[in-house]
Amino acid sequence: MKMVYNWINIIQDYLLPPTCILCGNPGHDSRDICHSCYTKLPRNNHCCYQCAEILEISTADPAQSCWTIPAQHPSGASRAKPLPAVLCGRCLSRQPAFDETVAPFIHQGAIRHLISTLKFGANYKNARLLGMLLADHLTNLSGTDLHLPEGCRAGKTDMQQTADRPDLILPVPLHKARYRQRGFNQAIEIARIVGRELQIPLDLTSCKRNRDTPHQTQLPAKKRRKNLKNAFSIVKPIHAQHIAILDDVMTTGSTAHELAYALKKAGASRVDVWVCARA
To answer: Which residue range or ranges hold the Double zinc ribbon domain (predicted)?
Structure first.
């Protein structure tokens, strides 16, 4: 059934013009979203450089809740267009294993709907749109509409610069029991689109999820960390030094932390996180 559905999507891509998934109007710029709906998407405009946590903007001294760091790549290479980077208090007090996070949208409104109906409704067309939006954000292919506001890492880097290009994309794996239940991994479906658009290979075999952790949505951060402890294993050598973990949404960052920890333990020197949205 899944294969048949994918073939239907492929045929529709060639025979039917893009249509906005959200309102049904004609799509814009070869995307399944119209310009009006696109401009209303909830953007993560001000966030932590490392975990993309949404930061409140106020007239108070920002040093009280976050810290501005030099606009320099973690590897030491300067960015083409230096912008201030900000760390949240949580990342300052409890350093995550991953180096930085790209999260262009906030997990609410239309973005939440797209992710939810993909994950629980098997709407594969949503994966294509989400993947294209994420890839567009990374490459700035759509010009100023997808520019990065100051203070947020998401969308800032031009992926045409080899210094910022990961060697591979690793979608967050599902446990085999969860995969059988759902029938697909939404992170893989989104990653296929991002990898194709950015011409970066995917790795679907080097990492496995050791146990079927319970749904984390309603759990506090401390409980999530406990549930996810040693949840991932690297089952074959990974020779890539720079890896991008890809998932649909980041809530506390516990999943990304555990996976990044396993990857660095296996030899990776830098691990970024790419997600469509930050909760």
So the answer is: 12-56
